[in-house]
Fold this protein.
Amino acid sequence: MKATDINLSKSATMGDVARAAGVAPATVSRYLNNPDVVSPKTKHKIDQAIRAMNYVPHAAARTLASKKSRMIGAIVPSLDSNLFAPALEAFQSQVSKAGYTLVVASDNYDAEQEFKHINQMVSHGIDALLLVGSSHDEAIYQLLKAKQIPYVLTWTTTPQEEHPCIGFNNKIAAANVANYLMDLGHTKFAMISNNIKRNDRAHKRLLGVRDALALRGLSMSDEYLVERPISAEQGREAFRLLMSRSEPPTAIICGSEPFAYGAIFESKHLGLEVPRDVSITGFDDMWLASLITPSLTTVRTPQQKVGALAADYLIAKLTGKDVALPTPLEVEIIVRESCAPPSKH
Amino acid sequence: MKATDINLSKSATMGDVARAAGVAPATVSRYLNNPDVVSPKTKHKIDQAIRAMNYVPHAAARTLASKKSRMIGAIVPSLDSNLFAPALEAFQSQVSKAGYTLVVASDNYDAEQEFKHINQMVSHGIDALLLVGSSHDEAIYQLLKAKQIPYVLTWTTTPQEEHPCIGFNNKIAAANVANYLMDLGHTKFAMISNNIKRNDRAHKRLLGVRDALALRGLSMSDEYLVERPISAEQGREAFRLLMSRSEPPTAIICGSEPFAYGAIFESKHLGLEVPRDVSITGFDDMWLASLITPSLTTVRTPQQKVGALAADYLIAKLTGKDVALPTPLEVEIIVRESCAPPSKH
DNA sequence: AATGCAAATGAAATCGCTTTCATTTTGTTT
DNA sequence: AAACAAAATGAAAGCGATTTCATTTGCATT
């Protein structure tokens, strides 16, 4: 770890190391990539030489020659978001543990940006790729297929098993929430959601809610669906809007948890009491859910698990192991204080 | 953007494009890197060929030949943290806007991991590097210097101008908070902080507080300094601990904002009222600060700005422009409800 | 038309590694 | 000790771009 003898001139190359160790470059390469096949004796010599010259392999050269970059890409909607950060952190941890380097980009829910980023990453030779959600340009899949790049879609499950996915069933999860609220006696629902068109998870959650309602002969008109960028602030506004309707909902299902926080905070400003006047649910179970007053009834999603499993899957795939895709992950409704039966008007 | 004619066999190389366009590979290279020097006529031919074959340059080959990877690295303590995410998002946005690809890693405040990641990134040929904080292994600086890799330290300022920094003065910011509280009449202080040894920002904030106190003849004993990993949950525990002292503090300065949230939530459990029974301050002004009850008096730090400026600086540096480092950024105390004069015993 | 100069292009070496194939060394078996 | 298979090593050909240097082309000028 001492860095006393850093060579200030040109960096040492594999050739330099080979010369110093008195072996051929090929042997150094083997030492690096497949140590088992080099004899202990030469292994030692090479080891010495590498340390002495502070040799660091030139990754681009390796990539060029081997067609493997030892980089894995991840494209998420946003880096600045509690929604993906835990998964990304877990992903990065696993990825780097396996000796890979992580390349990331955020696309702000914009398909064109995503496409651009993917092209850039592919050009850089990433060995595998993590994507969020299930709706991606067909060209992307074609590209990944053509280049034989393993990928995985996260936060989602494909019913048709078209693509490898690691996530949970958003539709069912949302349906469970709706059912829970209906069991409490609610009939007048509203939903605060991220953009339905651009965010397939949001879309599926909406479908889940609508299906569940339909099964019990209920429905939610479009007026009670408010689409917003994800943030607590937007949740506040959406809540105010919804509660100012002539016929306000008795239960508000938030497609993303920050909306729920915003709604709860805003309820205090409006002099409303949760859950007496209106029930609110979240989605994800972030740290604030249990601390806020009233604490939030929500569905807990396995965020780090998604990240870690995605990494494991891709790495296994790269290692040549044949991997079974994990079955859709479980989610769980965490019942806290923010829901109650609707008041008798 | 159509991907109808993806070549399923080997990807097209520059040679293929050259052949198709009836020019030399060198000319294609010029078209890509320095379009001004190729004639409009050939430019058109090459353009056609590239589209037709769906050619994507091989980044590793470019890197090898040009010694520029068009990748920029960033190492942050944690990806799963509201503290760095906004900056990182802004950084990534600028970086990719300039045509670079972002490589990230998190080191969990562990110097050894950081060193490992940097080596890996350097091996991958990153053109520039963002680091957080000011305390890094000397070997790192040597390596970056030897390889001539521009870098920037963020969230900090070096008084000695040893290294390029983009951030604010943590010491002064914390001192301001302490002064504000002393102005209110406080004399019995406590601080909840991240690990002082591993986190230089935390350390500087502590120094700022201590210095400010000293200037007014006050002090804070070590018993009133609680070091914890950054989270609201840890903030709760620390708060409970501090308030159970025989002589509890009247003001608690939180070195990171999640601590403050935890403290405020826990105060309710303990039947204490903020700010009547104890004043609390945060650090960063995250979204929750204005929504929580009581709203949090805190210091607002320019997070996106740090990320964006860091990117601008590095990119300018890479473009060969001579860049003036921005002066330390301003921070501002946002006075809200969580502080008040100490109660009369 | 001849001249000269700048602009545009091409040829070929090079970047640092991997990998195939051939060769040498080692160790085991008879 | 001979014979042979297995293990270890070496030689050399790429991988796909960039870049220097040389050459050709195009245009304006006389």
